[in-house]
Predict the structure.
Amino acid sequence: MTSSLLQRIASGDSAAVRECIDQYGALVWSIARRLSRTPSDAEDATQEIFLDIWRSAGRFDAAQGSDKVFIAMIARRRLIDRLRKTSAEPAMEPVATLETVVWADPGTAAETAIEAEQAARALAELRPEQRQVLELGLLHGLSQAEIATRLDMPLGTVKSFMRRGLIQVREYMNIDAEGVSARA
Amino acid sequence: MSDKPAQGQPDEAMVDLLIKQVTEGLSPAEQRALDVLDSATVSADLREFERAAAAITLAGGAGGEPLPPALARRLAAQAAEHLTSLSGSQSVQRVRDLGAARAAIAVSLPLRAARRNSAYGWFAASACLVLAIFGWVRPPANIAPLAQVAPSVAEQRDALLANSDTIKVTLSATKDPAAAGVTGDVVWDPATQRGFMHFSGLAANDPAVHQYQLWIFDGARDQRYPVDGGVFDVPANAKEIVIPIRAALMVLKPAAFAVTVEKPGGAVVSSRERVVVLGAAG
């Protein structure tokens, strides 16, 4: 059975460490750019994320998801931690300059990762304002309070949209129906 | 719904906490509220929400922006350092002075924040220390020597200049005493937001008394508030110096560059009392 790149890193394959940069550099960088306050923050974060990836590759379980999702999870975790530590600083960018997001089309997102296809299908069923809340929170790193201000929407509504959207994506990812989604 | 649920809180509140953790992080109070809950349940649910958030991130087009070449080179150097450290870790039992070995391993590649004052000096120092202690450990054959994968600042500037999108702005000296006989330029790549200053003849400064600071005037921003391009020092006897630019904000339309003399640590808004050099783009 062919080992995934992360499994090769975990087994000490030195070439895999460098291949990881070639294969996932753009992914990590683009997430870091969106969730960092400045370009230099994004560069520092990208270096930290790759160290995290190399060190935690041994925890990757191919049965639980793709390499890409595992790496995106590590990247998001590190970036949110960095944002939290600098939360007293001014907001990242004026909202008007936020990059426009083009959601993947259901049916073609599988080229990115099977989980992206599942998410795209779930997102397609959401109302535009629900997708907008997810976009601002997950892709641009705005806090729920910032989203409420930006969209002139009650904070409770923002939380509700965020909760329903994430639970719907969870369900499309064939997550245990006895989990949180069933209770919320 | 409460932001600070107590033990026995409704599940919806727990879900909201988990979602906040994966989207923006928790405050210490919120984290404590989550910690009192069943850790196995929380951990499993948290991981599922993290997976969902990661999947949405991928569906949102993450991955379309190529890695800047200079950052790719730094990551390659970091990979080499990581692998060297692993080699050292595996051989550490063969080193009698275990304390010294741990110290060597602990000197890992510093991130850029730690390099701000000395560019690649920290990297070179850590690499030398690791190699001094583990020099007898032959690295894997396919790892390039560290000295070859860490380009100097001057080499990085040259590489940036080779990019057709990079702009070069000649800096003109003012009548400030520190500017006597100074020549210099700025190179800046708008796409990667990276650039370098290059000076010849700029007076050495005492960092305890004052420091130089670069300002970038962005045509898309209020000209009263140029973007901070970073604080830097000129060492004694430095005839020629190349300094990386550390723009604090995204520069959309670089219009002009200026260097001022500021108090140690730099200024948030310069009084512009001492402008040393300046130059306009295009």
Q: What stands out?
A: The first strand of chain B starts at residue 167 and ends at 173. Chain B touches chain A through 63 residues (CB under 8 Å).
